[in-house]
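YM 10:42: GNAT family N-acetyltransferase sequence, as discussed on the call
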Amino acid sequence: MEIRPTTDEDLDVFVDTVHAAFGRFPETPVAGDGHWWSALEMDRALLALAADGRPVGTASAYSFELTLPGRAVVPAAGVTSVGVLPSHRRQGVLSAMMRHQLAELRGGGEFLSVLLASEATIYRRFGYGPATRTTHLTVPRHRAALAAPRARTEAGAPAAGADPGSVEVLRRAECGEILEEVYDRYRRSQPGALSRPHRWWTRRAGKPPIAPAPRHVAVHRAADGVPDGYASYAIESGTLTVDEIIATDDAAFTALARCVLGHDLVSEIVFQHVPPGHPLRWQLADFRAARVSEDTDWLWVRLLDVPRALAARGWCTDGELVLDVDDPFLGAHDRYLLTVRDGKADCTVTDREPDLSLDLSDLGSLYLGGTAPSTLIRAGHIRAHHPGAAPLADALFRTDRPPHCLHWF
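YM 10:58: structure's back
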């Protein structure tokens, strides 16, 4: 078997092969904008070839930026289009491609890679761990009223709910630049969020509101007229489905939620991407009105260079932690001393006794702060070597804002 990089001339073969791996057919023609593969970076894609030269597997990566705790924005490879034809599965093709890809990413100086897992049992063995979650929230229209806010500021004015801005409903085609600009502001302050490169917007790649599918967009503007949020939605068979609400603050989010929740002639409103623990449920006058479903993993993270990755993110408290990290897929096993002072970390190889022993995939789950170390200790994934290890690790990896990612790739 041969694994080789691709060029732009391989686009048709690559798209046909990855669709065949998933038992689907690509829309025709393959070339052109408006498809999810329109933003593929063919200089970062791989084809696995059988002995007779036939393509039997694919893998690729996007060039993203990932926002970390502490609002650090760093490069991250977005692994995508990974597939093997049914005729060649369980023959080592996938493992060979993943090993080849990881070597290329590390050789190029990258220290983080991320992906969305089609199946939860596949990617742990390659060192990826689920790092963010997302939920669907369904609200019946007749129970969708928002409660008046009870908290007030010291000056006596409502702390939330009184919105000095405005909401305007536009067609998707009328507000492309607004969506791109608002999303970029949002993702730079949201841990776990990925960038949406300009080529995604111009080529209309991905899912709505990037894709060319018809959508209405509620755009929120602050009091000064500057757009600071949007909600992309469509109505079908009496259900209003919100692709995503993007807002740079809670007031804009609340105004947009009120707009879609108050839509006439619908039976229910479905929010497709709500962070776990989001206050929207608490804002409803009827707390039981919202039904949570599809609480699922979303972004999976792999650390390609542990010291660089841990030094890149921000930290909420000071302390020292020794991590014994096993990477069985690449045959690596190292021990690191993590030292945090004033929100910044230094990470070096050490021979000190460990506080925690863990698999690299579990470190990926901890990395963005969405999973507490004590949770994985209780689950039997991580070994704590003394009673104080769990609370120490929880304090260090804690974040002031839960991570969330809604970008599909």
